[in-house]
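Submission sheet (multi-component)
Chains listed below:
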Amino acid sequence: GEVETAHPMVDTPKVIAHRGANNQYNESTIPAYQIAAEYGVDALEIDLRMTDDGELIAMHDELIDRTTTGTGKASDYKLKEIKEFQTVEVFNNQTIEEEIPTLNEIMEVFSDTEHYYIETRLVDGKPVMEEPLIEMLNGYNLISKELVTIQSFSQISLAKIHELAPEIPLTLLFGKGKFNLKEATLVDYPFIGIESTDVTRKNVNELHKHGKEVHVFFTDLDKQKEEQERVKSLGVDGYFTDNIAFTKELLEEE
Ligand code: G3P
Ligand code: CA
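Outcome: structure written.
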């Protein structure tokens, strides 16, 4: 596959706020994104789930159990029902409860002041969140302003996005231990998302040779700092960071 457009490597890697400033406030909530924005990050990372009545909400897990006061699948609730639950997390021995935001509510707050790095996924095996997502992004003029990147583990989802809005830069994600260099170099998308332990010098160099940027995410919080230092030495292009202050400082070092 040919790379459709030239995407020059950025000199300064991108700091992408993974689920907002999730080490300071309940992940994927508006305050978590506000804190991230105050740091001056390059993008806000937002995972999407779809409710039973077709609304897009910011939520990582399929089940609402880990992050909220509720239980069960997000997709089994109507928006009005899911809004009755709160996200809940403990920071410094303090329990914080905070509303589950819709994507629309997040965009109401940040409008065109931030770059949105949105993760799509299939819903019960079907690409159904892509159309309403593109419609919403167009409603805020975010695509024409180049304020959107879309990432997915699903090539079906990315293909659908590409068909609906070919100007959006896309990221194909590979799960931990599942990185496939051949597959990554064959897709036409400019960015490849890899879990840090799959980031080797060879993988980074090959992806760069094919004109791709490498955006790294981290699944082991305890090893994230050393992993960020390691992948920095390999010249990666973006960090889905769970510690914005650390990453910004790391990237400022010579
Ligand atoms: O989007 C990069 C990273 O977020 C992918 O992993 O599971 O945290 O969404 P996950
Ligand atoms: Ca994600």
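Remark: Residues 45, 47, 119 surround calcium ion (ligand 2) (CB under 6 Å).
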